[in-house]
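May I ask for a sample protein chain and its fold as tokens?
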Amino acid sequence: DRFVNSIWNERLLRCSQCKIARYCDTRCQKEAWQEHKRECKCLKSIEPNFPPDSVRLVGRIVFKLLGQSAACPSEKLYSFSDLQSNIEELSEEMKEGLKHLAQTLQLYLRVEIQDAFQLLPAIDIFQIFAKVSVKTDS
């Protein structure tokens, strides 16, 4: 663990603004800026209370679904809409957890999208969280 953290901290460059996103070099950082800039603004607005990675992931998905960034090559094979949420298989506890994450997302995105749930009627935030969450059998 300490070895991985050492490599992580020494070799990866941080975003100069949010200090959260990391890049292998300046070329990667420049190429990622179009997709990171909205996330960066959100991260800076809630510092030091950074959200869990799942909230950051769903935030990036929301920005992508809103058409703010170009399609990536993998989307020629699959799209996000191809994923299944399997909400009906989730436990009530898991559903409650996802609702909490959806509320956290709304706070996280508010600097970019003032009322995420009113501006995104075609995008079901709960469905997105269900699609990216891993269901574990107990």
